[in-house]
Structures are given as C-alpha cells and as structure tokens.
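Quick one: co-fold with NAP.
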Amino acid sequence: MARESERECLCFDLNTGAKIPSVGLGTWKAPPGVVGQAVIEAVKAGYRHIDCARVYDNEKEIGEALKELFSTGFADRNEMFITSKLWCSDHAAEDVSKALTRSLQDLQLDYVDLYLIHWPVRTKSGSRGFAPEDMAPLCLPETWTAMEGLYASGQARAIGVSNFSTKKLQDLLKYAKVPPAVNQVECHPVWHQPALHNLCKSTGVHLSAYSPLGSPGSWVKGEILKEPVLVEIAKELNKSPAQVALRWGIQMGHSVLPKSVNASRIRENFDLFSWSIPPELFAKFSGIHQQRLLQGTFAVHETCSPYKSLNELWDGEI
Ligand SMILES: NC(=O)c1ccc[n+]([C@@H]2O[C@H](COP(=O)([O-])OP(=O)(O)OC[C@H]3O[C@@H](n4cnc5c(N)ncnc54)[C@H](OP(=O)(O)O)[C@@H]3O)[C@@H](O)[C@H]2O)c1
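Sure, here it is.
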C-alpha cells in the first residue's frame, strides 16, 4: 500500500493521457556555464522533468546536456518530460510555430512534452521587455488556436498556459477546442491558490507549481523557507523546510518545479517519495498567512496594457 501511494506521487495524469513527473527541475536564473551540469546532476539523481523557457536564455546549453545524457544512455528521450514556453512577444499566430521551432532547435529535440503560453500578456513581435511602447493588444483565442496547431502537428505533445487566473482559465476552457493540459502558476505553502486548485481539479487541468520554494535567489526573494509553520514541521519530520514545501505541493496533487544549480540541493529536492506529511501536520498549512510573491507588476500599465492594475491581471486573486 505504501509503495502504491509512493508510485502515485511520482507522476500525475494529464488530460492528454500522458503523465507528468511530479518533480521537475526549474531552470529560470540557472546561469550559462552552470545550467547544463545542473540538468545532468538532476537526471542522474532521478529527475525526468525539466522546466525550460525560451526567455530563460539557456535552452541551448540544456539541449547540449540532454544530448549528452541521451548519447551516454543515462536517460531515453521517451522517459523525459521537457517543457518550454511561448514568450509574450511571440503571441501573433504567425510567430507561435516559429518560436517553438527555435526552442526545439536549441533543445535538440523533435518535440516538447508540454508547451505553455508563458503569460497572458502580449508584447510587440521582436521586442524583449515590457516598456509601454512594446505592449500589444492581447488576443488569447488567436494565440490558443496557433497552440492547438502545434498540438495537432505533434511538435507539442501537450499544450497549456501559465500565470492564468481562475477567470482566465475558465474563459479559455470556453473557447478552446483542445483544453489546456496544464496551468503553471506560483504555488507554495505561502500561496495556496485554493480557487484555482479547485477549478483545475474539477476540469482536469493539471496545476504545476512554480517557485515552490518561494524563489529566494531571484528578485522575488521569498522567505517561505523561514516560515515558522514550515520550519516546525520540518523539524518534526527530520526533513529540510524545502523538502516539506515540495512534499506539501505533491500531496496537494501539484507537480513542483524547484530550481537549483547545486548538486546536493538538487538531490535533496528529489528526496520526497519515501515519506509523507501526516494529516495532523498537513492541516497546519491552512494557518499560514497567504501572499502572492511574483506579482507581475511589469505587465500592468495605465494606458498601454490590457491590465490597468494587478487586480485586473489576476482577476482579483492578489
Ligand atoms: N511560468 C512562470 O512564469 C515561472 C515563473 C517563475 C518560475 N518558473 C519556473 O519554476 C522554477 C522554480 O521557481 P524559481 O526559480 O522562481 O524558485 P524556487 O525553485 O522556488 O527557488 C529557487 C531558489 O532556491 C534555492 N534552493 C534550491 N533548493 C534549495 C534547498 N533545498 N534549500 C534552500 N534553498 C534552495 C536555489 O538556489 P541554488 O540554485 O543555489 O540551489 C534558488 O535560489 C523556475 O526555475 C522556472 O523553471 C516559472
């Protein structure tokens, strides 16, 4: 029985019929010269899921690492789950396929297992940042139709979204011919997202949790690993606060995407399957003060963005 539930935690089912491994290596802010080795360490430690994005500027080095892992027999392509994401400047229908082709070239792959619209935000084709003059009108139905084309072509074995609020996901589910397989959002013990969690559960959209450790090393500088409830539970279970935060996510039914470029932390973050948080300790997570850490202020502008406030960007979930 214990082994059965352990197996259930290793992967979650997607609405495509595929499985998504419950722990994926995050690669945002994993710098060049380091990210390739991190991917190799992760796969050797047992990870089979790597979360990439074109905008992270490191897919080429990840592609080299994957090629080495495949050619040396450490992993087969068909047991790996590779995600990439469509950046905001590639939302135009004619840019969507080109953007995936560039990611596939850099990753040295024929297909990705999951391709996500990175943000419900559109900037002008060819632009990089979010300067007001670079903002463009959003047209998610047009972008989603182009994503459906990638799914039909087999270049993306699943398609989904990221940073979608409950309302934006509900809207997408109304017009999508292919429903999204995943919504990748900020989620951790300090930001539970209960409404989104419930919608995802009832509609078969898998919730994948980014910044599951609160992104302490980025400008987000979340301090969730110092959260007293987490520290207390970690002490009680003889685990690290990071492991407890990740295990909480998995027990919620979310895949978790911890980023690390440190070999021992990469291993620590995967040591999640031979133990669990018992119900009496799990209940304590509901007492943690909630706070969205990655607010997306860059996407808000009084006149040039469809979102005049953070409240509009997140449809009140802030
Ligand atoms: N879709 C989106 O818009 C979006 C947004 C944000 C993130 N993401 C994805 O989610 C991934 C994870 O999120 P994130 O990078 O923001 O942050 P995170 O995984 O919550 O935290 C990463 C930070 O925690 C440190 N760390 C890792 N393991 C640790 C441990 N066991 N104990 C203490 N510190 C530890 C890392 O440092 P070391 O590297 O030095 O270990 C790094 O500074 C990203 O890399 C990206 O793939 C997606």
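If it helps, The pocket of NAP is lined by residues 26-29, 51, 118, 162-163, 184, 210-218, 225, 240, 242, 257-262, 265, 268-269, 294 (CB under 6 Å).
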